[in-house]
Protein backbone atom coordinates (compact mmCIF):
# COMPACT_ATOMS: atom_id res chain seq x y z
CA UNK A 1 0.00 0.00 0.00
CA UNK A 2 1.32 3.52 -0.77
CA UNK A 3 2.80 5.56 2.06
CA UNK A 4 0.79 8.09 4.04
CA UNK A 5 2.16 11.07 2.09
CA UNK A 6 1.25 9.54 -1.27
CA UNK A 7 -2.21 8.65 0.03
CA UNK A 8 -2.68 12.22 1.26
CA UNK A 9 -1.81 13.57 -2.21
CA UNK A 10 -4.26 11.19 -3.87
CA UNK A 11 -6.99 12.17 -1.40
CA UNK A 12 -6.45 15.88 -2.07
CA UNK A 13 -6.60 15.30 -5.82
CA UNK A 14 -9.87 13.37 -5.51
CA UNK A 15 -11.44 15.96 -3.23
CA UNK A 16 -10.67 18.62 -5.79
CA UNK A 17 -12.65 16.76 -8.44
CA UNK A 18 -15.67 15.92 -6.28
CA UNK A 19 -16.59 12.68 -4.54
CA UNK A 20 -19.79 10.62 -4.27
CA UNK A 21 -21.80 11.26 -1.14
CA UNK A 22 -22.97 7.66 -0.87
CA UNK A 23 -20.81 4.60 -1.57
CA UNK A 24 -22.16 1.05 -1.28
CA UNK A 25 -19.95 -2.02 -1.24
CA UNK A 26 -20.63 -5.71 -1.89
CA UNK A 27 -17.91 -7.21 0.29
CA UNK A 28 -17.07 -10.46 -1.49
CA UNK A 29 -14.17 -12.90 -1.45
CA UNK A 30 -13.50 -13.73 2.21
CA UNK A 31 -13.72 -17.48 1.64
CA UNK A 32 -11.60 -17.51 -1.51
CA UNK A 33 -9.00 -15.31 0.22
CA UNK A 34 -8.69 -17.94 2.95
CA UNK A 35 -8.71 -20.96 0.65
CA UNK A 36 -5.96 -19.53 -1.55
CA UNK A 37 -3.83 -19.22 1.59
CA UNK A 38 -4.72 -22.69 2.86
CA UNK A 39 -6.43 -21.12 5.87
CA UNK A 40 -9.74 -21.97 7.52
CA UNK A 41 -12.68 -20.07 6.06
CA UNK A 42 -13.17 -18.48 9.47
CA UNK A 43 -9.83 -16.71 9.02
CA UNK A 44 -11.13 -15.14 5.82
CA UNK A 45 -14.17 -13.77 7.62
CA UNK A 46 -11.99 -12.48 10.46
CA UNK A 47 -9.73 -10.71 7.97
CA UNK A 48 -12.84 -9.38 6.22
CA UNK A 49 -14.10 -7.91 9.50
CA UNK A 50 -10.75 -6.17 9.97
CA UNK A 51 -11.11 -4.74 6.45
CA UNK A 52 -14.51 -3.30 7.42
CA UNK A 53 -13.03 -1.66 10.49
CA UNK A 54 -10.13 -0.28 8.42
CA UNK A 55 -12.46 1.10 5.76
CA UNK A 56 -14.81 2.86 8.18
CA UNK A 57 -11.86 4.42 10.00
CA UNK A 58 -10.31 5.64 6.75
CA UNK A 59 -13.50 7.09 5.30
CA UNK A 60 -14.45 8.71 8.58
CA UNK A 61 -11.05 10.33 9.04
CA UNK A 62 -10.04 11.19 5.48
CA UNK A 63 -12.93 11.53 3.01
CA UNK A 64 -16.02 13.77 2.85
CA UNK A 65 -18.30 10.82 2.08
CA UNK A 66 -21.52 10.97 4.10
CA UNK A 67 -23.00 7.50 3.62
CA UNK A 68 -21.45 4.06 3.45
CA UNK A 69 -23.63 0.98 2.92
CA UNK A 70 -22.06 -2.45 3.39
CA UNK A 71 -23.51 -5.80 2.27
CA UNK A 72 -22.56 -7.99 5.23
CA UNK A 73 -24.97 -10.96 5.09
CA UNK A 74 -27.57 -11.66 2.43
CA UNK A 75 -30.83 -13.53 2.88
CA UNK A 76 -29.32 -16.23 0.63
CA UNK A 77 -26.29 -16.72 2.90
CA UNK A 78 -28.32 -18.92 5.26
CA UNK A 79 -27.65 -21.81 2.85
CA UNK A 80 -24.01 -21.92 3.95
CA UNK A 81 -22.66 -24.47 6.42
CA UNK A 82 -24.06 -24.11 9.94
CA UNK A 83 -20.59 -23.79 11.48
CA UNK A 84 -19.67 -20.97 9.11
CA UNK A 85 -22.89 -19.09 9.83
CA UNK A 86 -22.34 -19.56 13.56
CA UNK A 87 -18.85 -18.09 13.32
CA UNK A 88 -20.09 -15.14 11.26
CA UNK A 89 -22.78 -14.35 13.81
CA UNK A 90 -20.33 -14.51 16.69
CA UNK A 91 -18.02 -12.23 14.73
CA UNK A 92 -20.84 -9.73 14.14
CA UNK A 93 -21.72 -9.75 17.83
CA UNK A 94 -18.10 -9.27 18.89
CA UNK A 95 -17.46 -6.29 16.62
CA UNK A 96 -20.81 -4.67 17.42
CA UNK A 97 -19.93 -4.89 21.10
CA UNK A 98 -16.21 -4.21 21.24
CA UNK A 99 -15.73 -1.56 18.52
CA UNK A 100 -18.61 0.81 19.26
CA UNK A 101 -16.48 3.15 21.38
CA UNK A 102 -14.38 4.09 18.37
CA UNK A 103 -17.47 4.63 16.22
CA UNK A 104 -18.90 7.02 18.81
CA UNK A 105 -15.60 8.88 19.09
CA UNK A 106 -15.39 9.34 15.32
CA UNK A 107 -19.00 10.48 14.89
CA UNK A 108 -20.19 7.37 13.06
CA UNK A 109 -23.93 6.65 13.03
CA UNK A 110 -24.48 2.91 12.67
CA UNK A 111 -27.76 1.45 11.40
CA UNK A 112 -28.90 -1.91 10.12
CA UNK A 113 -31.05 -2.77 7.10
CA UNK A 114 -32.68 -6.08 6.24
CA UNK A 115 -34.90 -8.52 8.10
CA UNK A 116 -32.94 -8.43 11.34
CA UNK A 117 -35.73 -10.30 13.16
CA UNK A 118 -34.28 -13.55 11.81
CA UNK A 119 -30.82 -12.96 13.31
CA UNK A 120 -29.76 -14.66 16.57
CA UNK A 121 -30.89 -12.85 19.71
CA UNK A 122 -27.36 -11.89 20.74
CA UNK A 123 -26.68 -10.29 17.37
CA UNK A 124 -30.01 -8.44 17.40
CA UNK A 125 -29.37 -7.06 20.88
CA UNK A 126 -25.81 -6.03 20.01
CA UNK A 127 -27.03 -4.33 16.83
CA UNK A 128 -29.72 -2.43 18.73
CA UNK A 129 -27.22 -1.27 21.36
CA UNK A 130 -24.83 -0.19 18.62
CA UNK A 131 -27.55 1.76 16.78
CA UNK A 132 -28.75 3.42 19.98
CA UNK A 133 -25.29 4.40 21.22
CA UNK A 134 -24.21 5.87 17.86
CA UNK A 135 -27.52 7.60 17.05
CA UNK A 136 -26.04 11.08 17.50
CA UNK A 137 -23.21 10.53 15.02
CA UNK A 138 -23.12 13.13 12.25
CA UNK A 139 -19.80 12.50 10.49
CA UNK A 140 -20.59 9.27 8.62
CA UNK A 141 -23.69 7.07 8.41
CA UNK A 142 -22.81 3.39 8.01
CA UNK A 143 -25.70 1.13 7.00
CA UNK A 144 -24.96 -2.56 7.47
CA UNK A 145 -27.14 -4.91 5.39
CA UNK A 146 -27.77 -8.06 7.42
CA UNK A 147 -30.20 -10.77 6.28
CA UNK A 148 -30.89 -8.38 3.43
CA UNK A 149 -32.41 -9.02 0.01
CA UNK A 150 -33.23 -6.32 -2.53
CA UNK A 151 -36.38 -7.98 -3.86
CA UNK A 152 -37.64 -8.58 -0.33
CA UNK A 153 -37.05 -4.89 0.46
CA UNK A 154 -39.23 -3.83 -2.48
CA UNK A 155 -41.96 -6.29 -1.49
CA UNK A 156 -41.94 -4.96 2.08
CA UNK A 157 -42.22 -1.38 0.85
CA UNK A 158 -45.12 -2.33 -1.43
CA UNK A 159 -46.90 -4.08 1.45
CA UNK A 160 -46.46 -1.03 3.66
CA UNK A 161 -48.01 1.25 1.06
CA UNK A 162 -50.81 -1.26 0.43
CA UNK A 163 -51.52 -1.16 4.14
CA UNK A 164 -51.61 2.63 4.07
CA UNK A 165 -54.13 2.50 1.21
CA UNK A 166 -56.26 -0.07 3.05
CA UNK A 167 -56.26 2.18 6.12
CA UNK A 168 -57.33 5.14 3.95
CA UNK A 169 -54.16 6.99 4.96
CA UNK A 170 -53.31 7.50 1.28
CA UNK A 171 -54.98 6.82 -2.06
CA UNK A 172 -53.46 4.61 -4.78
CA UNK A 173 -52.81 7.75 -6.82
CA UNK A 174 -50.58 9.05 -4.03
CA UNK A 175 -48.07 6.27 -4.65
CA UNK A 176 -45.16 7.50 -6.75
CA UNK A 177 -41.41 6.89 -6.90
CA UNK A 178 -40.68 9.26 -4.02
CA UNK A 179 -43.21 7.64 -1.71
CA UNK A 180 -42.02 4.14 -2.58
CA UNK A 181 -38.39 5.17 -2.05
CA UNK A 182 -39.28 6.63 1.34
CA UNK A 183 -40.69 3.24 2.35
CA UNK A 184 -37.40 1.46 1.69
CA UNK A 185 -34.88 0.66 4.44
CA UNK A 186 -32.70 3.58 3.30
CA UNK A 187 -35.61 6.01 2.98
CA UNK A 188 -34.32 9.54 3.45
CA UNK A 189 -30.81 8.70 2.28
CA UNK A 190 -29.84 9.56 -1.27
CA UNK A 191 -29.22 6.64 -3.60
CA UNK A 192 -25.61 5.46 -3.89
CA UNK A 193 -23.74 7.14 -6.71
CA UNK A 194 -21.18 4.34 -6.59
CA UNK A 195 -21.47 0.61 -5.92
CA UNK A 196 -18.25 -1.40 -5.62
CA UNK A 197 -18.02 -5.19 -5.68
CA UNK A 198 -14.83 -6.98 -4.74
CA UNK A 199 -13.50 -10.45 -5.74
CA UNK A 200 -14.04 -10.20 -9.52
CA UNK A 201 -17.72 -11.18 -9.60
CA UNK A 202 -19.77 -8.85 -11.80
CA UNK A 203 -23.33 -8.90 -10.52
CA UNK A 204 -25.40 -7.14 -7.86
CA UNK A 205 -26.56 -10.30 -6.07
CA UNK A 206 -29.89 -8.83 -4.96
CA UNK A 207 -28.30 -5.71 -3.44
CA UNK A 208 -30.05 -2.31 -3.46
CA UNK A 209 -32.07 -3.18 -6.56
CA UNK A 210 -34.30 -0.11 -6.28
CA UNK A 211 -31.54 2.31 -5.30
CA UNK A 212 -29.02 1.26 -7.97
CA UNK A 213 -30.96 2.64 -10.97
CA UNK A 214 -28.27 5.23 -11.78
CA UNK A 215 -25.38 4.04 -9.65
CA UNK A 216 -21.96 3.68 -11.21
CA UNK A 217 -20.78 0.08 -10.85
CA UNK A 218 -17.14 -0.79 -10.30
CA UNK A 219 -15.90 -4.38 -10.07
CA UNK A 220 -12.44 -5.15 -8.73
CA UNK A 221 -10.52 -8.42 -8.67
CA UNK A 222 -9.32 -7.70 -5.12
CA UNK A 223 -10.73 -10.02 -2.46
CA UNK A 224 -12.48 -8.13 0.31
CA UNK A 225 -9.87 -8.77 3.06
CA UNK A 226 -7.26 -7.06 0.85
CA UNK A 227 -9.46 -4.06 0.00
CA UNK A 228 -7.55 -1.18 1.57
CA UNK A 229 -7.61 2.65 1.37
CA UNK A 230 -5.54 2.57 -1.81
CA UNK A 231 -8.09 0.29 -3.50
CA UNK A 232 -10.93 2.58 -2.45
CA UNK A 233 -9.13 5.64 -3.82
CA UNK A 234 -8.57 3.83 -7.11
CA UNK A 235 -12.31 3.08 -7.37
CA UNK A 236 -13.16 6.69 -6.55
CA UNK A 237 -10.78 7.86 -9.25
CA UNK A 238 -12.51 5.58 -11.77
CA UNK A 239 -15.88 7.00 -10.68
CA UNK A 240 -14.67 10.54 -11.34
CA UNK A 241 -13.56 9.65 -14.86
CA UNK A 242 -17.06 8.56 -15.86
CA UNK A 243 -19.79 10.76 -17.34
CA UNK A 244 -23.03 10.47 -15.39
CA UNK A 245 -25.83 11.34 -17.82
CA UNK A 246 -28.85 9.84 -16.00
CA UNK A 247 -30.38 8.78 -19.31
CA UNK A 248 -30.16 12.25 -20.87
CA UNK A 249 -27.70 14.32 -22.87
CA UNK A 250 -26.30 16.46 -20.06
CA UNK A 251 -23.39 15.17 -18.05
CA UNK A 252 -23.83 14.30 -14.41
CA UNK A 253 -22.00 15.52 -11.30
CA UNK A 254 -18.91 13.33 -11.59
CA UNK A 255 -17.97 14.59 -15.05
CA UNK A 256 -18.81 18.20 -14.19
CA UNK A 257 -16.54 18.11 -11.14
CA UNK A 258 -13.78 16.58 -13.22
CA UNK A 259 -14.13 19.23 -15.93
CA UNK A 260 -14.03 22.01 -13.34
CA UNK A 261 -10.93 20.57 -11.71
CA UNK A 262 -9.10 20.31 -15.03
CA UNK A 263 -9.85 23.92 -15.93
What is the chain-wise order of helices and strands?
HEHHEHHEHEHHEEHH
CATH top level is: Alpha Beta
CATH architecture: 3-Layer(aba) Sandwich
Number of helices: 10
Helix percent reads 40-55%
Broad structural category: alpha/beta
Anisotropy-based shape = globular
Summed over residues and divided by their number, the pLDDT gives a mean of: 92
Measure the end-to-end span: 30 Å
Strand order of the largest sheet: 3-4-2-1-5-6
CATH H-tier superfamily: Decaprenyl diphosphate synthase-like
Key features?
6 strands; alpha/beta; 6-stranded parallel beta sheet; Undecaprenyl pyrophosphate synthetase; 263 residues; disordered C terminus
Short structural summary:
The protein has 263 residues and is an alpha/beta fold. The chain has helices at residues 4-17, 30-36, 41-62, 82-98, 100-105, 121-133, 150-166, 177-182, 229-240, 253-262, and strands at residues 22-26, 67-74, 108-113, 140-148, 194-197, 216-219. It has one domain (20-149, 191-258): Undecaprenyl pyrophosphate synthetase.
Task: Describe this structure as you would to a colleague.
The chain has 263 residues and is α/β, with parallel strands linked by helices. The chain contains 10 helices and 6 strands; from the N terminus they run H-E-H-H-E-H-H-E-H-E-H-H-E-E-H-H. It has helices spanning 4-17, 30-36, 41-62, 82-98, 100-105, 121-133, 150-166, 177-182, 229-240, 253-262; strands spanning 22-26, 67-74, 108-113, 140-148, 194-197, 216-219. A 6-stranded parallel sheet has the order 3-4-2-1-5-6, with helices on both faces. Helix 6 links the parallel strand 3 and strand 4 (140-148). The longest helix is centred in the N-terminal third of the chain and has 22 residues, at 41-62. The protein starts with a helix and ends with a helix. Residues 255-263 have low confidence and may be disordered.
Amino acid sequence: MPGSQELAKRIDALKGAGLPQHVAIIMDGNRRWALERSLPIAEGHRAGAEAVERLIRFVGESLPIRYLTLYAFSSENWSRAEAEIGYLMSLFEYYLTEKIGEFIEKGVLLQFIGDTSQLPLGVREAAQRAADSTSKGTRLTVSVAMNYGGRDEIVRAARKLAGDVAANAISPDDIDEDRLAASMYLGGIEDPELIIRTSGEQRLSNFLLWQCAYSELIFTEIYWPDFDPSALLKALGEYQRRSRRFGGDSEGPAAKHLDAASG
